[in-house]
């Protein structure tokens, strides 16, 4: 980096700007107009959600097709809402108890994979 670049950076970063001041002389907008609001989607949050969905799919891919289906139904992944054990049983033509057993076994299998460590990192 050249000394001129450092000086320019210091001049630019050292300046304070009023939130009410126009962004440029020929515009009426101020900083309040362009700052992110509560309802504005945050790109970093979207990226984290996409990454989490990808890691969940990777973890589910280590299970059998039936185990993955049961967990997707139970937790409502890719659905409007989760299903009860009874609803999953009706969907897959299984008893409620068998669905519960498959769910428990699938969760234990995921817990003992390296994918589990990655998924835990999303919890904070």
Describe the structure in your own words.
The chain is an all-alpha fold and 124 residues long. It has seven helices and no strands. Helix 4 packs across helix 6 and helix 5 packs across helix 6. It is elongated, with a radius of gyration of 25 Å.
Approximate shape = elongated
- Describe the largest sheet: none
What would you say the CATH architecture of the domain at 64-123 is? Orthogonal Bundle
**For the terminal residues, how far apart are their CA atoms?**
37 Å
- SSE string, helix = H, strand = E? HHHHHHH
Low-confidence stretches: none
Question: Can you tell me the CATH topology of the domain at 64-123?
Answer: Arc Repressor Mutant, subunit A
CATH superfamily of the domain at 64-123: Winged helix-like DNA-binding domain superfamily/Winged helix DNA-binding domain
Q: What is the strand tally?
A: 0
Mean pLDDT: 82
CATH class value of the domain at 64-123: Mainly Alpha
Rounded radius of gyration (Å)? 25 Å
Percent strand: under 5%
With helices defined by DSSP (H or I, 4 residues minimum), what is the helix count? 7
Overall helicity: 55-70%
List keywords for this structure.
124 residues; mainly alpha; 60% helix; 0% strand; elongated
Any chance you could write out the topology, listing elements then pairs?
Blueprint: H1 3-13, H2 31-34, H3 43-60, H4 65-75, H5 85-92, H6 96-111, H7 114-120
């Amino acid at each position: 980096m050249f000394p001129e670049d450092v000086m320019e950076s210091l001049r630019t970063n050292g300046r304070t700007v009023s939130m009410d001041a126009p962004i440029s002389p020929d515009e009426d907008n101020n900083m309040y107009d362009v700052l992110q609001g509560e309802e504005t989607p945050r790109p970093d949050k979207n990226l984290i959600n996409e990454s989490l969905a990808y890691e969940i799919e990777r973890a589910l891919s280590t299970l059998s097709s039936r185990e993955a289906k049961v967990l997707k139904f139970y937790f409502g992944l890719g659905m409007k809402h989760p299903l009860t054990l009874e609803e999953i049983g009706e969907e897959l033509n299984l008893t409620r108890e068998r669905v519960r057993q498959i769910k428990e076994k699938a969760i234990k299998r995921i817990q003992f994979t390296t994918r589990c460590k990655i998924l835990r990192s999303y919890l904070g």
